[in-house]
Backbone:
């Protein structure tokens, strides 16, 4: 069984949790897909709206611990490549750290959960949510879009998921031997050079210009007083581009 053989669920709590449960019974790397999720989750403990008609995928992975910080990059890059190469969508970009945007609106997000035992990485779960046939009004705290909103067409979700996975699979396997993933990812981030407003976990707020992203995936921010700060994604609850 490879990542390309998706284990499908009609519905589940979250494909993340299904992967966590599978980690007890298999040492293999597997893909879990669900047609809908009852407790889909996003970053910062947010709910991920998960009605039927959209892609909800998670991978149970055993990456090299030295490369664990790039796994979320592979997820966003896979969606980027899928949308640009298979669908020729235009104006696709990555919003730091985990969002894929089309025409400035969010179409996909990824979520990475790493499980450590005695400071050793046991496994990683990477989740990908892609808005495929999403339409209508949902309580989502960001402007969103979907493949259907963009093209006016409906898509078969299993078919879309099976097309996304080879992009991830290729990036994942090539990341084992090349160090180019980080620069590939950095080149697609449109947050660089922008004036941003950050809300932090400790309720602090930061304003500044994004100078770049380092090789760990952290944001390099030049504050309005010209001091420079390295910001870890886990400490940010909201990033608004001014
Ligand atoms: C984000 O906040 O942008 C990340 C969203 C990740 C959603 C996906 S859908 C499949 C997997 N299962 C979940 O519960 N979450 C991830």
Residues:
């Amino acid at each position: 069984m490879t990542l390309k053989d998706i284990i499908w669920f009609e519905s589940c709590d979250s494909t993340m949790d299904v992967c966590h449960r599978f980690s007890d019974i298999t040492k293999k790397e597997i893909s879990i897909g669900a047609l809908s999720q009852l407790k889909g989750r996003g970053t910062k403990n947010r709910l991920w709206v998960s009605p039927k008609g959209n892609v909800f995928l998670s991978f149970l992975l055993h990456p090299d611990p030295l490369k664990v910080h790039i796994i979320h990059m592979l997820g966003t890059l896979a969606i980027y490549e899928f949308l640009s190469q298979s669908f020729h969508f235009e104006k696709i970009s990555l919003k730091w750290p985990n969002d894929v945007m089309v025409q400035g609106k969010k179409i996909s997000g990824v979520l990475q959960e790493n499980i450590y035992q005695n400071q050793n990485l046991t496994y990683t779960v990477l989740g990908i949510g892609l808005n495929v046939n999403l339409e209508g009004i949902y309580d989502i705290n960001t402007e969103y879009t979907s493949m259907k909103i963009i093209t006016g067409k409906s898509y078969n979700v299993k078919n879309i998921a099976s097309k996304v996975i080879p992009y991830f699979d290729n990036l994942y396997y090539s990341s084992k031997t090349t160090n180019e993933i980080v620069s590939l990812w950095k080149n697609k981030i449109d947050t660089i050079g922008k004036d941003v407003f950050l809300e932090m976990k400790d309720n602090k707020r930061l304003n500044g210009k994004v100078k770049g992203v380092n090789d760990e995936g952290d944001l390099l921010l030049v504050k309005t007083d010209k001091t420079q700060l390295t910001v870890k994604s886990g400490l940010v609850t909201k990033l608004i581009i001014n």
Residues 14-16, 37, 40-43, 46, 48, 56-58, 98-99, 109-111, 127-129 surround biotin (CB under 6 Å). The mean pLDDT is 94. DSSP finds five helices and twelve strands in the chain.
